Amino acid sequence: MSKSFRIGIAGLGTVGVGVVKIIQKNADLLEQRCGRPIEIICVSARSKDKDRGVDLSAYEWVDNTEDMAGIDGIDAVVELVGGSEGVAYSLTKQALENGVHVVTANKALVANHGYELASLAEGRDVSLSYEAAVAGGIPVIKALREGFAANRISSIYGILNGTCNYILTDMRETGAEFEDSLVEAQEKGYAEADPSFDIDGVDAGHKICLLASIAFGVKPEFSAVRMTGIRRITGIDIKFAGELGYKLKLLGIARDQGGKLNISVEPCLVPNSSPLAAIEDVYNAVFINGDFVDTPLLTGRGAGEGPTASAVVADIIDLARGFKVPTFGIPADKLKDPVFIDQGEILARYYLRLSVVDQPGVIADVSAILRDYNISIESMVQHGRAPGQAVSVVMTTHKTKYIDIESSCVLIAELETLLDFPCVMRLEDEL
Amino acid sequence: MSKSFRIGIAGLGTVGVGVVKIIQKNADLLEQRCGRPIEIICVSARSKDKDRGVDLSAYEWVDNTEDMAGIDGIDAVVELVGGSEGVAYSLTKQALENGVHVVTANKALVANHGYELASLAEGRDVSLSYEAAVAGGIPVIKALREGFAANRISSIYGILNGTCNYILTDMRETGAEFEDSLVEAQEKGYAEADPSFDIDGVDAGHKICLLASIAFGVKPEFSAVRMTGIRRITGIDIKFAGELGYKLKLLGIARDQGGKLNISVEPCLVPNSSPLAAIEDVYNAVFINGDFVDTPLLTGRGAGEGPTASAVVADIIDLARGFKVPTFGIPADKLKDPVFIDQGEILARYYLRLSVVDQPGVIADVSAILRDYNISIESMVQHGRAPGQAVSVVMTTHKTKYIDIESSCVLIAELETLLDFPCVMRLEDEL
């Protein structure tokens, strides 16, 4: 029998425990598939005594997590501590420096330090693997780096955050407002007590940053990802979107527009006929556009013990089989600095919702401003009448530059009849 | 610069030409991603002089295709000749024997000779790669062998034949009958002049046979795959299915029922709410059930020049990167002989359509027979009345063994009021 592949697991939260369960339950399968056993030699976490529902007695307990990088004979450190700095960062760096592979589910770590860590890993001929960092149950890192590697990728659109997708689905299905659906998500365990990372788009931002790096061969530059979350979305938006034939989805977008990149996270209107519109609840999906493969769509659970641990173990299997690909698909020293498109230059159709006082002349004023910026209105909806009261008016535009929408909204907001700054969202018709 | 990865392309039909196009157009990308250039050194096809729209002048022309296996310095033969026997088989065998990798899009070859060829490849430490053989634009072989390799797979359901899916979609959308939709598919280039391989389920049978081998670690045994095509499906079935909340899809099914395998291709009723129901036209999809990853769904184009060639080149990239996995995910000598479930023992819900003379007592007679086999009726639909004339009656059953459905249908068919043998199809509610 071949030598076992020896790993240490740092962090025994949901995912860490899931990894232990898989390696215990499917040991025979894994051995056949890898041609050698996968052996957990050590584990580490904050509390040694906590009952985690799995038997850890056969594994060495490492008191100081960072020491795992120096354990004798370890082939890979599985970093599940989390956070972009602190122990996660120092453990990963130390392991790679020691010539030990690192498998991680830590999107923040790789989005923030990916270039440095990739360079380090490749210099030591080891791997920094992170399939679990993006859409756990969907092997999208593998698909992009390997399955679609024959293609020049022009765009990626992803539903990458299950919490937001759950909230948006719940709002549409029940007519609830954002705050109520958030509470519902928290009660079901789909949202954290402090949900900001999810609902402000940061989590999806880390993920699309990583996918963009692989797709376009650029250094990950998380600070340049423009992120808009879903806090400002109201039941009215969901309803109007539905009437116009769309669903609201928080999309991670990575698009090559004439050699310049648009990498963002924002709520968008997606046509009901789009396969992305059918992705509901906590499910994730990634829609890829390649020059030969056309438009595959991969869907599955984005989080949770089983799917995320499954992705971690898939990375371990690759390493045990002796396979490694550069972190971002091409050698780190070949990664280019990303050139971003100016936000104002982004061409898209837009959805505008205006809160206005219902009185004659409002639409004429708004239309005149839009006309002055060469923005054509594609459709307009207003429900009922409430003379002198607040009403919502929704417009969709033809394709236009963001700078024109933004400038016109500044002027529209100054109209006396406007009660709030217009709500602007992208319409993604081509999905 | 590293040594190039040298390939020969045998067969210059649609896919072969697509492979040449990718390697020419995306040469720079491929070189970065592989760490070395991919170099076509020779090509071969029936006619040397045909204009294929790509420049082949730089490549050696091999007159006798089988000689490609012996070309000096070749790293991989790309077999795109097709057919399970003849040149495809002898070329593949000879190349593997010579220690040359083989990349193929040939599902018939691998489904029929996979075990022998895998053993040969592994004995020579080379790879038999066939990502393009199943659902071209979907990296499903890679997903099963690698991405989901941490999981024990319990079932796979695939829409694996674009021709059939196009025909069934067209029948539903236009109300056309099978023959008309087939002609439409032929006119659009989605069906061959002789469409039997597609519409009789043989093509999907090859594919599900391969997926089952990987999923369950068994030798491919194509002759044991039970295949039912779509020829007998009528507009009435499509209509009734719709009324009951289902769509008709030709599914490749690979299911582990208590340690015994059910591997088949058959038209099934899939609930409208299932993500598989949303896969229309020529698109393919594969729905996988794993013990940790849950139920990912991969969709994309199943055929065509670009997607299939993209899959072929993905295999080439893996090899150029130095990665190979055993043909069926575990070493050939570890593959088990599949143990199949007896067809009669398959538990499922069923759809029954009866052509009967509309006269009192028909339903009573049918119901009595079903009752005698312990089959409960879940719903029944009959439209309008036509006393003394032919009408269609549709029933759906609760879960029952196939043997009971089959036996009762034999008796039902003997009723005087029956005009034809009942049409029986599986209801796949759990998708």
Which percent range fits the helix content of chain A?
A: 25-40%
Named CATH topology of the largest domain in chain A: Dihydrodipicolinate Reductase, domain 2
Largest binding interface between chains: A-B, 57 and 57 residues
Write down the Rg of chain A: 24 Å
Biggest β-sheet description of chain A: 11 strands, mixed
**CATH homologous group name of the largest domain in chain A:** Dihydrodipicolinate Reductase, domain 2
CATH-scheme architecture of the largest domain in chain A:
2-Layer Sandwich
Summing up helix and strand content along with how strands pair, one would put the structural category of chain A as alpha/beta
Described by its quaternary structure, the protein is homodimer
User: Count the helices of chain A. How many?
Assistant: 13
Distance separating the two termini of chain A: 50 Å
The low-confidence parts of chain A are: none
H/E element sequence of chain A: EHHEEEHEHEHEHHHHEHEEEEHEHEEEHE
DSSP strand count of chain A? 17
Describe the structure.
The structure is a homodimer of 431-residue chains. The first copy, chain A, contains 13 helices and 17 strands. The first copy, chain A, is α/β, with parallel strands linked by helices and 431 residues long. Chain A has 3 domains: 5-137 and 310-332, Rossmann fold (3-Layer(aba) Sandwich), CATH 3.40.50; 140-301, Dihydrodipicolinate Reductase, domain 2 (2-Layer Sandwich), CATH 3.30.360; 343-427, ACT domain (Alpha-Beta Plaits). In chain A, a hairpin with a 6-residue loop joins strand 11 (283-290) and strand 12. In chain A, helix 1 packs across helix 11 (305-320) and helix 4 (107-123) packs parallel to helix 9. Chain A is elongated, with a radius of gyration of 24 Å. The first copy, chain A, starts with a strand and ends with a strand. Chains A and B meet through helix 1, helix 2, helix 5, strand 12 and helix 11 of A and helix 1, helix 2, helix 5, strand 12 and helix 11 of B. Strand 12 of chain A pairs antiparallel with strand 12 of chain B, so a sheet runs across the interface.
